[in-house]
Amino acid sequence: MTNQRRRLYFGIMVAFPVLLFGFIEGGLRIMGYGPDLSLFTTENLNGREYHIMNPGVKHRYFTRVSFLPSTSPDYFLVPKPPGTYRIFCLGGSTTVGFPYWYNAAFSSFLRDRLRALFPEKSIEVINLGMTATNSFTARDMAHEVLDYEPDLIVVYDGHNEFYGALGVASRESMGGSRWLANLSLRLIHLRTFLAMRDGYAMLGKLFAGDDPASRGTMMEKLARGRYIPYGSDLYRDGLDAFRANMADIRDLCTSRGVPVIFGTQVSNLRGLPPFISTDASALAPQEQLTFHASFNAGQSAMMNGAFTSALNSFREALQLLPYHAEAHYREARCLDTLGRHTEAQAAYRLARDHDELRFRTSSDFNEAILAMDDGSLATAVDMERIFAAHSRDSLIGYGLILEHLHPSSYGQFLLARGYAEAMRSRGYLAHTDEWARRDTITDTAIWRDRRVTPLDDRLAERRTEVLVTAWPFQEEEGLVSAIAKTDTLGLIADRATRGEIHWLQAHEGAVEYYGSRGDADGLEREYRTIIDQFPVVNVLPYLQLARVYLETGRIPEMESLLRRSLTIKPTLLAYRALGDIALRTKRPEEAEKMYSAMFTFVLPPPEQVENGYLLALAHRQAGHTDLALKRLAEVLRLKPDHAPAIALMAEINGK
Fold first, then answer.
1. I need a surface site. Which of 109, 145, 359, 650 has the fewest CB within 10 A?
2. To 10 degrees, what angle do helices 363-370 and 341-353 make?
3. Could you write out the DSSP letters of every residue in 170-194?
4. What is the mean pLDDT of residues 266-277?
5. Is the confidence at residue 392, as pLDDT, over 90?
6. What pLDDT digit, counting tens, does each position of 358-385 carry?
7. Is there a contact between 134 and 157 (Cβ–Cβ < 8 Å)?
8. What are phi and psi of 76, to 5 degrees?
9. Is residue 336 a contact partner of residue 344, using CB atoms and an 8 Å limit?
């Protein structure tokens, strides 16, 4: 065989698999195989093309676990409008706002705070949170959002690190390998790889039998039975992957000159006992007996109110089993009751850190987050410290946290404040001197103006109740409380919790409820909240709220709102109302503009007559007599006996 022929055969051998792959990949794309995995999709709203988070992006991260994520309603324009300050928020269910919706997420509180302080600036805060995801997802999304002109990236992530998609202990993992997990996120955009992944998942379901990933809550689907001892190899693998992913996000952002702010993870220390403690069976038989004797003695002493004696017994038990989470929690409860709160805080943290069902971020992970601060473009905010400062005895518990880790709406408010304070300290959005001049609105005033309604609070209560009546809070799923048939808001919240209606439909139900009661305050709260979440989608809530303002005599607020509505979609109603207000307040030139705009719509003859007369009246008051006569002639052509027009023409002609 000649060298030339040998090279030819070698080239064919190399080219064949490449051509075969190209043929398969091209065929799958032509057939439209697989979901749209884009991070964003586009929608045309009132003649403008907006980007919005794509629900189908979940298929990058989930194969076995089926769920329908609620994705952000934050629309934004590409390219970014001049002068706009754009922030993207990355994270899991806390970033989403669970058990609330996005209107009570820290992203919405941050946006509203910044807009209150800098009303002349165009500020966007776009929430890209997704339930049951972790730093692998945040890292993956960070690569893409940098192409959408961000001015700042905000990250709140860590609680789902082990069990979230691609986590080392998740049922949606790549064998615990960070290298494989990140490689899969690169290859998933190839339809060939997607088909292979889907085929593997299908075979797994065929031979797996009863799959735990097919039942229960997301927590149960991803984590039941997967316990991780503190300091174990699996624990260290998860911590190493988290550190590396956070460092990648930091380095990626800072290399592009984009600031990034990380936040430590906050959880319920005081109110929630650990889920799973270390098994004492690892001890020698006599040590097991001694441990249980000390632990039980501590429990008995606690029940009898002898907290000092109980504390000593629990500490004796911990001498034998230092990683026993429940013993640390009991120790903390004794210290807490005895008023030794600084010691109690340390013990509570040990109880959380040694909980082998790792739904709450341990101290090691928070230290890794704080280490991301480089003093320049990367900032780390100690959210635990902020929450502790707003907690009784500096011990974080119920009140700011609803169950094990999700903040209450005020907790989300504090997260937003923490990120805003970091922006101020680093001079993001505005120079620190300007921040000092502007940042004078009190937290009380900002909180009072929040876009969270009683319905949102009821919805969060119901979702929390459903969550804590299932695993891991209870071994078997329990019953939630019944709702009275007369409790309209409760029934609406229950339907939304069950997935029968969406957030917007729920709030439309609340509008109907308040309307039937003649409750103007309730109507205003609902309409303002809907507008806040869907500012560019539908002009109707603007017009409905304007009607509430009209009926309650709040004309300046009505006028301001109607002007905003015109930037969304021009409407005949808005032009007419603004013209009437301008005419009534002696601004005829403004009235001319508004009434003239009405004639850009197709009007039936009766409306042409009525609106034409008003426009003629505005012309008359503005001193534009010729225009007034011309418009009156048109009105009288359509309706010769229109008395107001006849009278106005006579007045102009001096008759």
1. 650
2. 100
3. STT-STT-HHHHHHHHHHTTSHHHH
4. 97
5. yes
6. 999 999 999 999 999 999 999 999 999 9
7. yes
8. -150, 155
9. yes
CA atoms 497, 112, 246, 407: torsion sign: negative
Taking only the tens place, the pLDDT of each residue in 182-216 is 999 999 998 888 888 888 777 766 665 555 555 56
pLDDT band at 468 (very low <50, low <70, confident <90, very high): very high
Cis preceding-peptide flag for 79 (omega within 30 of 0)? yes
What distance in Å separates the CA atoms of residue 508 and residue 46, rounded to the nearest whole number?
22
β-bridge pairing 76-77 and 48-53: antiparallel
Helices 325-337, 307-320: axis angle to 10 degrees equals 160
Closest CA to 96 of 405, 368, 378: 405
Cα gap 233→222, rounded to integer Å: 20
Q: What would the mean pLDDT of 335-345 be, rounded to a whole number?
A: 98
Answer whether 244's CB lies under 8 Å from 182's CB: no
User: pTM score > 0.85 for this model?
Assistant: yes
Q: Could you write out the three-class secondary structure of 376-423?
A: CCEEEECHHHHHHHCCHHHCCCECCECCCCCECHHHHHHHHHHHHHHH
The closest of 286, 288, 285, 306 to 297, measured between CA atoms, is 306
Rounded CA separation 303/423 (Å)? 48
Backbone angles phi, psi at 256, to 5 degrees: -100, 5
In 209-275, alpha helices (H): 218-223, 233-255
Question: What secondary structure, in 3-state letters, does 453-522 show?
Answer: CHHHHHHHHHHHHHHHCCCCCCCCCCCCCCCCCCCHHHHHHHHHHCCCCCHHHHHHHHHHHHHHHCCHHH
Dihedral over Cα of 534, 535, 540, 541: its sign: positive
Cα–Cα distance, 188 to 382 (Å, whole number)? 35
> What sign does the dihedral 223-227-233-238 (CA atoms) show?
positive
- The CA–CA distances, whole Å, from 386 to 236, 283, 345, 413 equal 28, 40, 14, 11
